Batch of 2 targets.
Target 1
Amino acid sequence: MNAPVVIVGTGLAGYNLAREFRKLDSETPLLLITSDDGRSYSKPMLSTGFGKNKEADGLSMATPEAMAEQLKAQVRTHTRISGIDPGHKQLWIGEEAVPYRDLVLAWGAQTVQVPVEGDAQDAIFPINDLEDYARFRAAAAGKRRVLILGAGLIGCEFANDLIAGGYEVDVVAPCEQVMPTLLHPAAAAAVQAGLESLGARFHLGPVLTRLQRTENGLEAHLSDGSVVPCDVVLSAIGLRPRIDMAAAAGIKVNRGIEVDRQLKTSHANIYALGDCAEVDGLNLLYVMPLMSCARALAQTLAGNTTAVSYGAMPITVKTSVCPLVVSPVPRGCEGVWTVEGQGADIKALCRDADGKLLGYALTGEAVREKLALNKELPALLA
Ligand SMILES: Cc1cc2nc3c(=O)[nH]c(=O)nc-3n(C[C@H](O)[C@H](O)[C@H](O)COP(=O)(O)OP(=O)(O)OC[C@H]3O[C@@H](n4cnc5c(N)ncnc54)[C@H](O)[C@@H]3O)c2cc1C
C-alpha cells in the first residue's frame, strides 16, 4: 500500500486541513494521529461555555469515528507521536514506525506552567483543549470563587464567561493593563472597566507565589504581599508552540516550527500549520490564519503547489460586556496612535506617517466601524 499523508493533531488545523484535502483528493490514504480523544470541537467555544452552561460533551461536534468516516481517513486517538525520522520518511509512536508520503505537523501549542509554592498546586487548571475544559468544569462544580492567572485575551474572555456562569472572579497578572501585547491602553481600560462592572477584581502587577489550602478553600499569596481567597485557579498565562520534537528531528524552529509560504519546513515532505507553525516569520495563534493555511496546504498536498497569503486578520474578543475588535499593528511597522471616544466606546487607530491605517482597537459602540476600517488595513502576508 502507498504510504499515507499523515497529519499529527486533530484540532482545528488538523481536521480543517483534512477536510480541504478531501475536497481535492478522495483517494490518497489519510491518517490522522492525536494524543487526545479526537473529538471535533471549536476551541474558541471553550471560553463561552460557562455562560451557556455547556459541558464538554455539549461542545463536542463529532466523534473521531464520525470524523474518520466523513474524511475517509483513519483517526488514531490517544496516540502520542514520540519522534520523527525524516531520513526514512517515518515517524515513531513508541517502538512503532509509521511511514508517511507527506507529514503535516498540526500539533498546536502547549500551556505555559509557572512555578508556585504551597500545597494546592493541583488546584491550578490550564484550559487549552476540550479535555482541559472538562477537568476544570469538574473542579469548579459547586465552587464559587475562581482566580484567573493572566489578563491576556483568554484570561479576559474567561473572566467574562465565568461571571456569566455565576462565579466570582479575581484576575492576577504581572502587567499594567489587560491584554498588554494586543491593546492600546485606552481600549484596555474600557475592557477592564466593563469586566469590573460585572464584579471582576483585577490585581495587576503581582504574580501568584504560593497557593495554600485552608479550611474554607484556597489562599492565593501574591508577590505584593496580598492574599486572595478563592476555590479554584484557572491558568491563562500563555501558550508556547510545540517545537521540541521537530527540533530533535533537525527541523528548523524559531518561536514556532519554521515554514515558508507553502507551509514547508526545512525538511522535504514535512509541513506545519496552526498554533505550532511560524509561517514566513509569523506565529499567529488564531483561527483565521490556520484556515488560510489549510486551504493552501491542501492544494499543495493534492499536487498543485500553492503559497498561502494572509489578508488583514482582525480578532474579535469575546468579552461580551465590552465588545472588542482588535487588529494589531504588523511587525516592523511604526505608527502614531489617535484615540477618540470615551468610557466603553473607544476608537484607537494607528496610522503611519502617510496616514495609512496600520492597526486598530475598537470597543463598545466603536466596533460598528470595523467593516469600513478593515478595508483600509494592510495584508499581513501579501
Ligand atoms: C480558550 C480559547 C479561546 C480561543 N478563542 C479564539 C477566538 O475567539 N478566535 C480565534 O481566532 N482564536 C481563538 N483561540 C485560538 C484558536 O482556538 C487556536 O489558534 C486553534 O484552535 C489552534 O488549533 P491547532 O489545531 O493548531 O491546535 P490544537 O487545537 O491545540 O490541536 C493540537 C492537536 O495536536 C495533538 N497533539 C499534540 N502533541 C501531539 C503528539 N505528540 N502526538 C500526537 N498528537 C499530538 C493534540 O492532541 C491536538 O489534537 C482560542 C484559544 C483558546 C485556548
Note: The chain has a mean pLDDT of 97.
Target 2
Amino acid sequence: MNNHKHESGNTSLLRGVVQDLSHDGRGVLKVEGRVYFVPGALTGENITFSPRKRRRGQFSGELVSIEQSSPDRVSPKCEYFGVCGGCTLQHLSPDAQLASKESTLLDTLLKIGRVEPDKVEPRITGSVWGYRRKARPGSKLVAKKGGVLVGFREQGSSYLTSLKHCDTLDPRLSALLEPLHRLIESLSIPAKIPQIEMAAATNGVSLVIRHLDALIESDKQKLQIFAEEWSVNLYLQPGGLNSIVPLWPIEPDPLFYVLPHFDLELQFEATDFVQVNERVNEKMIIHALDALELTPDSKLLDLFCGLGNFTLPAATQCNDAIGVEADQALLDKAKMNIQRNCGKHRFNGVQFQKMDLHNDQVTALAEYAADRILLDPPRSGALDVVTHLVPLLMPEVIVYVSCNPATLARDAEILVHRHGYQLQSATAINMFPHTGHVESMAKFVKRDG
Ligand SMILES: C[S@@+](CC[C@H](N)C(=O)[O-])C[C@H]1O[C@@H](n2cnc3c(N)ncnc32)[C@H](O)[C@@H]1O
C-alpha cells in the first residue's frame, strides 16, 4: 500500500487506500503511521484528503478526491446525506452495508470474545427505505436560519438538520415533517418545543409534542386542527413521561402492530420501546424462535422482554414462557397483550415479571428451571445474566439478540470460555439500513458432557 503526503498549492494533502469503515461510516486509513477517519470514503478506495486538527484524540480528514472508487459505491438517495446524522452509509450499496456489518460482528466476536461461530447464517433483511416506524426529531427556533427547524442532529454536532422529508421513515411519518415546521412556527412558544415523538402503527400514527412552557388555548386549537387534518393521535407532554395526555382524540385508540406469521397484535404507545423496523422484526422473531428449537414442553426465559415482542410469539409454540423486564409501563403492555390475543391463542403458561437484570439478584430466576433463554438486552449487554444466572440453569440453548457487537462479544466470551457453550451460529440483521447500527443474533448451545 502506498499511502503518503502530497503537496498541492498551499495545502498539504494526504493520499491513501481506505482499509476499513468505522462504526459511524467513516473511512479509516493509516498514513505515515497515523490513523485518519475520513467521512464519505469507502473501504478499498484510493483517496486524497485534507487532514484536520486532532479532536478528542482522533485525526480526521476531509475527502478531496477519489482516485479509485469502490464497486459498492452508490449515489446517496437523500439530499440531506452528509449533513444529517441519521444516516451515514447511503453511499454504500445496501448489500455491502450489511456485509460490512457482518464483518464487524465477526471481527468483534473474535477480537473481544475470542470466539468464532460454527456457521454464519444468511443475513436477515427487509426494505431499506420507509422502514422506521419510530422517531424523535428535535425542534429548534433558529431565527438566523429562517425559523423553526425540525429534524435529526447533524453529523458530529448538536445542530439540527432541517428536514422536509426523511426516506428512512415510514412515509406517514415523513409526510408530517414539513407540516410540523409550520405548525410549531405558528404556536405562541415555538422556542419551547424541543422534540416530537412519532410512532406509526398498523392502525394509525401518534405524535407526542414535548413542550417546556404552557400552551395557550389558541395553541391547543391549532394542534387539534393539525391532528384532525392529518388524522393523527396527538398527545401533549409538559413534563416527564407520566405527564403525557391526549389532546385529540380525547380517547385515542391504542396503537398496535401485527405479527401476521403468529396471528398476533401487540399494543404499544408512542414512547414505548418497539423494534423500529416492523418487517425485519417479524423475520428476526421467526429466526430466533427457530434457533431456540422450541417444543411444547420447552420452558423459556425471555429476558429484556419489553412488551412481549418475543414472549407472545414463543408462547404460541411452547407452554411455558416467562418474560422479564425492568420497565413497568412495558410490562403493563405485555399483560394487556396477553388479553388482546387470548381469543386466538391459549396463553396459560405465559408470565411476566419485573426485575432489574443488571444485578446479581438475577439468580432468583433460576427457580423457573428454564431450558431455553432468549436475551435481547440494551447496548450495555447482559453481563449479570451470563455471569450469575446461566451457570445455575445451564440451559440447552441461549439465543442472544444484540444491538452492540462489543457487549455481545464480551458476553459470548463468558458463555464459551467460562461456561463451555458452543457458539453455533451468528446472523447479521438489517434492522437499521443506512445507519452504522449493527443488529445481530447469536445462538449458543450447551456442549455434551
Ligand atoms: C432492545 S430492548 C428489547 C425489548 C423486547 N425484547 C422487544 O423485542 O421489543 C431492551 C429492553 O431491555 C429493557 N431493559 C433495559 N435495562 C434493563 C434492566 N436493567 N433490567 C431489565 N430490563 C431492562 C428495556 O426496557 C427494553 O425493553
Note: The chain has three domains: 4-68, 96-127+257-263+275-446, 134-255.
